[in-house]
């Protein structure tokens, strides 16, 4: 984890999302590669077993309360599965028109949701069918598969490369927000606004900013420290998903839609969307509570 954090410190010197197209492409290729490998290994294991190992009711628990905690945690994991709303506007800001940026993003979002849902369902279903109640939280890194060794190692390398790129893509909105806020707050401070060129042998020159170096390094160190302190894959994903899902993917878009379309209070559409937003809020709360309980249980066990 410390090595991963060191790599992220170096990668954080990339100025902004406009300069990260190659990172996004590499991360996407790695994601598709290990997803195909996981899907293929799960399907092969089901065929080798000759039967489906899982059940419709899912993993059993000692009592109803434990089962509910697992369900709530799963809701948090599902909420984390579609976190692109965090970076949607940042990506749209990098596009050029024509065609209009919002139409391009709408088409891209539909394709992305279809592709990711296909892989999520296939990998999740075939993984559970292959291992049943013993299914690890991560099929490839949780030692669900052992052979062929070279293919598992290659898939895990793809996961690492994907996470390196994914970390940077999802951190860029935070970096950009910090840059903008400090530039407005301290417009005459050289530490925040001055940029310097750094030229290394065999590499193109790239700009460096003292504030970016300090802030982004501190950010990576803090997130790496949290990862070392709480190394619980599914539970941490559930917390992050539950925290970000309702406000970013549901509440703000619904409120903006009301303003944009001038939806009147207590109209049919207003009531339906309010109910939808409230139901999603309850889902987020349940996912957050279940995931926090999972972290506490793991920490105390």
Automatic annotation (TrEMBL):
The keyword rRNA-binding does not apply. Pfam families: Aa_trans (PF01490). It comes from the Eukaryota. It is found in: Cell membrane; Endomembrane system. Carrier protein involved in proton-driven auxin influx. Mediates the formation of auxin gradient from developing leaves (site of auxin biosynthesis) to tips by contributing to the loading of auxin in vascular tissues and facilitating acropetal (base to tip) auxin transport within inner tissues of the root apex, and basipetal (tip to base) auxin transport within outer tissues of the root apex. May be involved in lateral roots and nodules formation. GO terms for biological process: amino acid transport; auxin-activated signaling pathway. Belongs to the amino acid/polyamine transporter 2 family. Amino acid/auxin permease (AAAP) (TC 2.A.18.1) subfamily. The chain crosses the membrane at residues 21-47, 67-89, 110-129, 149-170, 239-259, 271-292. Its main location: membrane. It is a multi-pass membrane protein. Residues 1-296 form the Amino acid transporter transmembrane domain. GO terms for molecular function: symporter activity. Keywords: Amino-acid transport, Auxin signaling pathway, Cell membrane, Membrane, Symport, Transmembrane, Transmembrane helix, Transport. It comes from Lupinus luteus (European yellow lupine). This is Amino acid transporter transmembrane domain-containing protein. One of its GO terms (cellular component) is plasma membrane. InterPro entries: AA_transpt_TM.
